[in-house]
Amino acid sequence: LAIIEDDPYYMLTLPPDTKHGDGWVDGDMAGIRALPTSYLYLDWLYGDGRVIRLDSTAKIIAPGLRIGWVTAPSVYINKLKLRQETSIQAPSGLAQASLAALLRHWGALNRVGEPA
């Protein structure tokens, strides 16, 4: 039995008291520390590889890009890749290039490596 975690507003969760009088937040992306624990993380710590997490740019970056991603154990990813190769079209090249440029500018690609 798989658990599908689909919470498009997950990254928009912020603690109620991060702002100071001047309106600025401490540190880079200080709200990340306050994110609630996801089912994927709990599965990684204590589970047996049942959680499939779905994420999207729709609520956190730009709704028009229509780009999303799946984080899951390799057994699910391999099956999804086989299905994707025969049934789903890729997002537009302009959308992919725009997102890649934004992530590169933010330095996010340095953390996860260049896309294959």
From TrEMBL:
Domain of life: Eukaryota
Record-level Gene Ontology MF annotations: transaminase activity
Keyword entries, A-Z: Aminotransferase, Pyridoxal phosphate, Transferase
Swiss-Prot/TrEMBL cofactor(s): pyridoxal 5'-phosphate
GO BP: alpha-amino acid metabolic process
Name of the protein in its database record: Aminotransferase class I/classII domain-containing protein
